[in-house]
Each structure stands twice: as structure tokens, then as C-alpha cells.
């Protein structure tokens, strides 16, 4: 998605196993608001909520707490260490079961 509002709109019609979010996003919603909204929509629609990972240049304790309160499943500071990304993607693939990951253009590709 190109901004937070678009990410929320896409999540209403396309189920994702996982979502990577930055805190700083274009549009009226930041990453925390997008996270919170996607989790709320999943509950409202009765669908399995996606794992949401915040990946951002912010690294303070307050940012980590805000991510947790918004419902994020994990928080990583940029640039993430390659082993962190590997662990994140492995956990996401395991959660997905089928090994599909969403890519930027909204199509899924097998990894």
C-alpha cells in the first residue's frame, strides 16, 4: 500500500497472514493507527487477524510500548539485522501454513 488509508482499505477485502508496517506513513493514519484498525477490522469481520510487524527507524521504549498497545505482534528497528528478518519471515511462513507472503503489489508469491 502507498499509505496508511490504502493499507486499511486493502485489508478489508484481502486477507493477509502478515503485514509489515512503518510508523511513519503517508495519509491520515500512522503505522500504529493502521495496526489498531486492521486488528479491529479482523475482529469485526470474524477473520483471523494478520501478524503485524512494525519495522521503523524509531527505537525508543515509548515507540515499542505504543506498538504493543496498538496490537503489533513484533517491533524491529531499522535497519533490521538479517537474522531478525529471517526469523520474522520464518515465523510468518509458519503462521501462514501454506508459505505465502504478501508483496507490495498485493499479489501473493510463494517463498
Kindly list the characteristics that best describe this protein:
111 residues, alpha/beta, two-stranded antiparallel sheet, 4 helices, globular, disordered C terminus
Which regions are unreliable across 5 or more consecutive residues at pLDDT < 50?
A: 99-111
Strand ordering within the main sheet: 1-2-3
Which structural category fits the helices and strands?
Answer: alpha/beta
List the secondary-structure elements in sequence, H or E.
HEHEHEHEE
Compute the separation of the termini in Å: 20 Å
* Number of E-state strands: 5
The fraction of residues assigned to DSSP E strands is 15-25%
Structural summary, described in words:
- There is one protein chain.
- This protein has 111 residues and is an alpha/beta fold.
- It contains 4 helices and 5 strands; from the N terminus they run αβαβαβαββ.
- It has helices at residues 4-13, 31-45, 61-70, 82-96, and strands spanning 18-21, 51-56, 74-77, 100-102, 108-110.
- α1 (4-13) packs parallel to α2 (31-45) and α2 packs parallel to α3 (61-70).
- The radius of gyration is 13 Å and the shape is globular.
How would you concisely characterize the structure shown here?
The chain has 111 residues and is α/β, with parallel strands linked by helices. The protein has four helices and five strands; from the N terminus they run H-E-H-E-H-E-H-E-E.
What is the strand and helix layout of this fold?
Elements: H1 4-13, E1 18-21, H2 31-45, E2 51-56, H3 61-70, E3 74-77, H4 82-96, E4 100-102, E5 108-110
Parallel strand pairs: 1-2, 2-3
Antiparallel strand pairs: 4-5
Helix pairs in contact: 1-2, 2-3
Amino acid at each position: 500500500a502507498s499509505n496508511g488509508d490504502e493499507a486499511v482499505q486493502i485489508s478489508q477485502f484481502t486477507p493477509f497472514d502478515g503485514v509489515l508496517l512503518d510508523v511513519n506513513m503517508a495519509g491520515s493514519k500512522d503505522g500504529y493507527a493502521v495496526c489498531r484498525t486492521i486488528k479491529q477490522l479482523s475482529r469485526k469481520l470474524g477473520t483471523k487477524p494478520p501478524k503485524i510487524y512494525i519495522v521503523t527507524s524509531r527505537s525508543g521504549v515509548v515507540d515499542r510500548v505504543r506498538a504493543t498497545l496498538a496490537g503489533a505482534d513484533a517491533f524491529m528497528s531499522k535497519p533490521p539485522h538479517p537474522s531478525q528478518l529471517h526469523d520474522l519471515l520464518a515465523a510468518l511462513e509458519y503462521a501462514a501454513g501454506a508459505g505465502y507472503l504478501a508483496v507490495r503489489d498485493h499479489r501473493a508469491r510463494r517463498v
